[in-house]
Amino acid sequence: MTIKSLSSSSLTNNVFYRSLLAGNAKAYFGGVAGYFAGGSTGSSVTTVDKFAFPSDSRTTLATGLSVARRNLGATANSQVAGYVGGGNTGSTVSTIDKFAFPGDTRTTLGSGLSTSRQALSGMANSGVAGYFGGGFSTTVDKFAFPADTRTTLATGLSASSENGGGAANSGVAGYFGIGAGNSTVNKFSFSDDSRTTLATGLSSNNLYLTAMANSGVAAYFAGGTNGGLKLDRVDKFAFPSDSRTTLATGLSVGREYLAAMANSSFAGYVGGGRNGGTLYTTIDSFAFPSDSRTTLGAGLSAGNYTLAGMANENL
Fold it and tell me: Which of 38, 75, 152, 315 could form a disulfide with 130 if both were Cys (CB 3.0 to 4.6 A apart)?
């Protein structure tokens, strides 16, 4: 278990700190569940599969998304709510569905994305704000917790992003992989939302990948496509140096249009995706900090791609 050093200004927004004050350390040290939402099983779906931590047992929410959609993004304010935004229902949408933790009751935000878009990514500074970036654009929308008020960052992504993946070191910085067939990774400092671009990007140009993070330790960008080759590669960026290594053990099978989420300090999960005409139910689990891979016995409820992942974890 890695405990991050926090500045006094960030303590009041840190879920771990608030949990300790409330005498609820168990909530921090356990994590609750991860979610894989929406996507396509041949047609767009409303399905939200929930995987309880630490058993990784799967249930499917009785109340799914408000409308069937694919190519969407997701983010979460751990211990409070998860957000599933944008996507394609036949046309692009700005809709953001909010799932309150732990009951998983769904509402739809009155203020959605600033523009309708698909192929976007999400990440969050848990306790502070969630971010939706890209979607055939450079736009980054920020939703302040708990009011869910939306602003759009003056400095967006460095290039138009498509299916690139988002991950965060909560309290410090968030990362968006641009995707769109290049290797660029943009970093947004949570102190002021200023953007830099990592000197070392992904290990190759990539498209249709996903990302997740072991907050306080490292971000991971997984899968995707390079020149038509479906990748099993997982690139790891260590915090705070952002130095990149590539895991010796990648995904169990190369695939694109997949999704990811994580239970920080315990494990990261990469699920679904497509390779050729095959849609996968597979969920690969990477144990932290060793990064050893296993494949869950219970995968997604159906083969699915262009889905999104988020988690109610231990942040």
Answer: 75
Per-residue pLDDT of 54-70, as tens digits, reads 999 999 999 999 999 99
Query: Would residue 6 count as lying in a domain?
Result: no
Give the structural domain span for 99.
31-312
pLDDT means over runs of 10, the chain (315 residues) = 42 42 44 97 98 97 98 97 98 98 97 97 97 98 97 97 97 97 97 97 97 97 96 98 97 98 97 97 97 97 98 88
Q: How many residues does the chain have?
A: 315
Q: In angstroms, rounded to a whole number, what is the distance separating the alpha carbons of residues 199 and 184?
A: 9
Note the pTM of the prediction, 2 decimals.
0.91
For residue 114, the tally of other CB atoms under 10 A from its CB is: 16
- Is 22 part of any domain? no
As a whole number of Å, the CA-based R_g of the chain is 17
Residue 171 maps to a domain:
yes
For residue 107, give the amino acid letter: T
Q: At a CB cut-off of 8 Å and minimum separation 6, what does 179 contact?
A: 119, 121, 134, 161, 162, 163, 164, 165, 206, 207, 208, 209, 224
Task: For 29, list phi and psi in degrees, rounded to 5.
Answer: -80, 0
Tally of domains within the chain: 1
In a domain, 17, yes or no: no
